[in-house]
Batch of 4 targets.
Target 1
Amino acid sequence: MSARVVAPELAGLKIVIMVGTFVRGGCERQAFLLARDLIHKHGLNAEVWALKFPGEYSQEFEAAGIPTKTLHFQHPRYGWVQHSWPVLRELKKSRVDILLPFTTWPNVVAGLTWRVAGVRLCIWGERHAGGERIPGVERVAVTQYRRFVANSTAGVEFLANVMRVKREYLSFVPNGIELPNIAPSTEWRAKLGLKPDQLLVVKVANVTNFKDHATLLRAWKIVQDEWQDDARPVLALAGYLTQDVYPECERITREAGLQSTVRFLGGIRDVPALLNACDLAAFSSRKEGMPNGVLECMAAGKAVVASDLPGIRDALGPEPDGVLVPPGDAGQFARRLLDMLRNPQRRAAMGEANAVRLHTEFSVERMVERHLQVIRASLTMPGQSWWRSPQLSHGRGRA
């Protein structure tokens, strides 16, 4: 598809999407898809910057023709102005016109720097629905914004009710996911040492605190205890193993005697192939925006058993049938897993429905177009007072 400029006011403007790191994750994947389509389908000048950690994922950006930059920002406990100076300097040097930070740290750093750096427009990107907070400085940074985007209804409510942002300055832009094009393969099943009749359950999420792998592992112990057949199902966990959480997960696995049916895969590149090989997806979490780890499973045509959170309901639909569990409830999670594992017809029907919903509601094209609509509208916003608190409604400067 040839590149086209979607709006005259965006031609020639430099757009930077700012992420925390170039470690592979849902946020970084959304940045990749947005930047790729802005450049190659809409003919715009876009780059992706990370605050720190170049990471192997930056190579995939560059290979796709997406310019990248790592700012080597150090997370401070104090002295925010001093630590943010290198970011401000780079924004000025690169003559950035539009800045789109994703997640809390980029939102805060961008909020403290964009006006002084001469950036024309900066849009807060809420992707954790308040799951990651930076006390004090976060509330200072949010006052510097005039426009906000959240990828979940939970994110919208967090910004409106906790951060006290006017609802008319909030936009809901769901994630976009590409449908995988994978031929059936037994490669992953062979890698995992599975027998032909052995069921495979997969969770796609980096092993972090709020992804709550511990609840899923405790549920898996119940599944194993109640399973009657010889070929016990296997649980594969695909995601980076963080040093502050993985040791606890490994301990739970060891003490529950689950080593033979749990596989910690670490970060992998061929997630669609792994999902293609599985029979059921699981996603336990305590707080979410809209998780790619659910959407990718839907794109693969898999049924998903998951924690009952607003962002997950955004993904699966308003009335998912018997697959949502209260966060942290290992007993109910186990029961839902057992129900689905024992019913292949139901798994297939729900997987097909998930694939249809993904295609109609969460295409990359729709996500990109909604971002562009917010950008265009924000560039033409009048300079009115916008903040809910009267004492914060003056001195906003440019858009």
Target 2
Amino acid sequence: MEITIPEDCGNSPRMTIVADIAAAWANGEEATVREWLRDDAVWSLVGSDVPAADGYVPAPVDADSGEILTVLNHGRLAACDGYVVSGENASTSAT
């Protein structure tokens, strides 16, 4: 899957890590995502009824493409938002 990451992610290592984790999640690369998760990580996917399985929530669709719109970090906290596209359906998600 092709995923677009903001160019300004390169000015902060943490922003790059967050974008890479989000892209791996959208690509269904659970092992890559789990490498970065703490054992007590808790996930919730807004608008999804899929329960977290062993601390992990899979992406809601097999996406064809996607875009990370914004990556923010401050201290030990970080977040991003974006969307994935599968066929004619788009699904907005955040991590």
Target 3
Amino acid sequence: MARALVLGGLTTGFHPFWINGPAIRAAIAPAGFDLFLSEDLEILATDGLRHYDLLVNYTTGRNLTPDQWAGLERFVRSGGGLLGIHNAADTFKNVPEYRAMLGGRFVSHPPQLDIAVTHVDPDHPITAGMPRFTVHDELYLLDWMPERVQLLSETHSHEGRSVPVLWVRSEGNGRVVYHSLGHNRETLEAPEVQQILQRAARWAAKL
């Protein structure tokens, strides 16, 4: 069975890991993963990721030491998978290279609303055959890098402009996925979101 580390922790009052961490584990486990939850960033610096096939990032507003960033970069570039969920775009801001690895960063969000998701790449393994769906969640407006990522899913803002929801990219020998939904436990428990996270985990881990 594949092994995944779900890394959480926050410097804000948002995204409680003690609630959403178990929800992420429950969402991804059916895809064939044994998932472990941790808030200890030192696992990145001590080469502890060598025991895992996938890192799921659900941290908020945290910083990395140089050794921690080096461990994360080494893991992904040597072939490990990175799955960033929601607030993964709002963390590690002291390391500009992390934004480039993930493919973008959080800028702002309107009040929570119904988000209608459509898939723009029907051939990718993560989105193939997936129906459109709607969830009530926090819509992240992102400073993203379309030249560095492959967009799979999008929605539209209240102003009518396209907003990315799901993208993938390669980093060295590793694979990176970012999914912008996941503020609420109910979103993480939605069947469509769970299916995307399961597929994303398997794709990132090359399973």
Target 4
Amino acid sequence: MEFLYLDEVDSTNLYGKRNLEKLEDKTVIVAGSQTAGRGRLNRSWLDLGEGNLYVSIILKPASIFDEKFANLTQYLSLVICKLIESYGLKPEIKWPNDVLINGKKIAGILSETVMQGNNFKGLVLGFGINISAKQEDVQKVVDKQATSLSIELGKQVDGTEFLKRLINLFFQDYNKFLERGFEFIKHEYLLRANFLDKEICVKGFNNTQTGIAKSVTDNGALILEKDNERFVLTIGDIL
């Protein structure tokens, strides 16, 4: 794999999409800062300063799109959890792929697929992880609580070392995941899920759905139950 370091960029995902044709498979784009970082459902991802991670991975696993590729964000959320656990912390996953510690968000993930007609050109798997942000930095995230690895550990963490370990861990089982999809990680994903058996509200692009979160399907979709009816949601964010 190749690492591409940028001092500043609008967003690593946008850069990856613009330059997808000339970037090799498994290229890791790392930015010192982002001016227009983005999260899921068109939300922004705030740049909380130097030492935090703003990264996108270029992936070109096939010439034809496979539904399993959509679950790569959930695979990455599990990988991030496993690495954070090695620091002695207990992260959780909020469906579909947010990573939290003590109920506070530490990482967000956004995958974007690039198609040319019916041809799958690749995808850009982007993520932001708060590594070195201080308490006064995370307070800028006014709409929801946030934290960083350094805050939770009470000491500074080397972001470069964290990223290298993360990328190695990501590709360790990457091919196995591509073969089996979400079912390959379902058990471990559910062990870290913080939403099960709770009444939740899920916001999609144009609507919201409430109910009790019962489980996830073998494809990573959320199963909600309300008034003895079950609903399967493939996209959305838990409010």
